[in-house]
Amino acid sequence: MAVPGRGAAQPRSGGLGASLKRFGSTLVAIVHSRAELASYELARERTQLTRMLLLGVAALFFLALGAITATIFVIVLFWDSQRLVVIGFLAVLYLGIGAAIAVFAQREAGRGKRPFSATVEQLRKDRDYFTRD
Q1: What's the whole-model pTM score?
Q2: Domain ranges of the chain
Q3: Tell me: the pLDDT tens digits for 32-47?
Q4: How far is CA 36 from the centre of its chain?
Q5: For residues 54 and 128, what is the distance between their CA atoms, to the nearest angstrom?
Q6: DSSP secondary structure letters along the chain
């Protein structure tokens, strides 16, 4: 015979009040962990966006500087013979490159991972767990 308090597993007592308290505590812990996950993902997305923005601005600056320098070089090179043809060709070339980059950027934006996808997936799992039969 097991002596109470001496290694025997004691059943939890307290009835409905204790059960509701444990349920509330579990619910708060779930919400807390999901909020932490969402805040982590928000910080990660903000850092990624800032990084990409800075890299994009730096790349655009140096590409524009290079394009301007190359354009001036080519125009000066053909100044005496075909300067208008060269200016027109370079304008069409730059417009084509710009349009191609715009299309590429639009496709990349559509292909990107949804922000907070891990949080949404975890909340979906929680919902499925609590609504199963």
Answers
A1: 0.46
A2: 16-131
A3: 888 888 888 888 888 8
A4: 16
A5: 41
A6: -PPTTTTSPPPP--HHHHHHHHHHHHHHHHHHHHHHHHHHHHHHHHHHHHHHHHHHHHHHHHHHHHHHHHHHHHHHHTTTT-HHHHHHHHHHHHHHHHHHHHHHHHHHHHHSPPTTHHHHHHHHHHHHHHH--
List all residues 6 or more positions away from 116 whose beta carbon is below 8 Å from its beta carbon.
38, 41, 42, 45
Cα 100–Cα 101–Cα 105 angle in degrees, nearest 5: 120
* C-alpha separations of 88 from 13, 41, 71, 96 in Å: 87, 48, 11, 12
- C-alpha span between 101 and 94 (Å, rounded): 11
Report yes or no: 92 and 73 within 8 Å, Cβ to Cβ: no
Tokens linked to 11: 């059943």
What average pLDDT does the segment 78-102 reach? 88
Contacts of residue 38, defined as CB under 8 A and 6 or more positions apart, other chains included, come to 116, 119
